[in-house]
Protein: Ribosomal RNA large subunit methyltransferase H
Amino acid sequence: MKIRIIAIGPKMPDWVQLGTEDYLKRMPRDTAIEFVPLPLGKRQKNTPKEKAIQQEGDSMLAAIKENEHVVALDLSGKAWSTEQLAEQLQGWRMGGKNVALLIGGPDGLDARCLAKAQQRWCLSNLTLPHPLVRVLLAEQLYRAWSVTQNHPYHK
Structure:
């Protein structure tokens, strides 16, 4: 199974690259994680933010591969504990599809992306900066995998 994290946002600082790569290289080949960065929609003073959200939605929908299980990271989603995320990870593996995790831009996900998602996941009720979300997400996916393997990392 491959997990693709499709994320709207500018180029990330070096510390984000280092942080995410550390967890990505720990993942086994049969559960590979890949980041797919997409550009922000153009935001201008006199242009409604909905236009930028639509641009981001267009690029995100184009990046989702056919037959992927789509999970939107969204405040309206369900919050999962680490153990529940491990169960989700096992379920995704058993489902036989690759997974696309969607991270929206500063104004959230386009409604079409939310509609395409089979699941919605609330990573946190806190407002988190995009760079931190990427590192946190990579770490939590690794932690969930470690739970499924009875690996001591989780303890």
Notes: The first strand starts at residue 2 and ends at 8. Residues 57 and 111 are 8 Å apart (CA to CA). Residues 130-148 form the longest helix (19 residues). The chain has a mean pLDDT of 94.
